[in-house]
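#struct-help
A.M.: can someone run this one for me? Single chain, 261 residues.
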Amino acid sequence: MRVTMLLLFAVFFSWKNGISQDHISLFQKKIYNMGNQFMPYRILLPQDYDTNKAYPLLLVLHGAGERGNDNEAQLKHGADLFLKTEVRQDYPAIVVFPQCAQDGYWSNVDRERGEAKFTFTFSSNGAPTPQMETLQNLVADLTKRYNVDLSRIYVGGLSMGGMGTFEIVRRNPELFAGAFAICGGAHPDTASKMINTPFWIFHGDSDKVVAYEHSVLIVAALKAAGAKVKFTTYDGVGHNSWSKAFEDKQLLPWLFSNKKD
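D.P.: on it. Structure tokens below:
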């Protein structure tokens, strides 16, 4: 009976995360540990990885619900997309899912939880959060450990990770060749610092967690600043707009078509 229950739990956990345990193992467990900085991450190398060949690097930032230190929860949303046979064949890339600490946050934003909704107040300046600082150092470390095509470094994320996507791009305005942000947000005044990176932004207009207006405002600011930006609105969709975004057949072709000069 105990064995049966453990098997059922494993199946349930795999189903809940949308990815099987066998597939999870393809994302190697790693830990960035330098000085007082610590960050678990999972890394998926291209099939037939060749150390003499340069590959694109994609950083995927999870939401607040996947914070912790188990080095697994961050794979809950989106990881299955990069394990698809056709994706691995058509877009050989180094894909990294870092994990934010339970008490940390990717972006510098004040958060308040009311009875009916969350309120986010984005900062236009200030120091990075400890997790953002570590994340930036992790990216630098990855470019040293692996043969990364420095003209093809990408970042994307959902919810808290969408916010983190905007922030890491504006803190590193020359680094990223393309970015996607799902149900995130940023201070409109930071748009001028992100004009060198094409963006694709997604949001459900019925989102009760991160207000749809956050994306509307940053899209308008990016366009006004001269950035290349695409915006997809999902009518009647709530906070889980990442499900539709990761199902969009044009996301990866668009993302990997971008390249720094």
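A.M.: thanks! The chain is about 35% helix and 25% strand.
D.P.: also worth noting: The first helix runs from residue 2 to 17.
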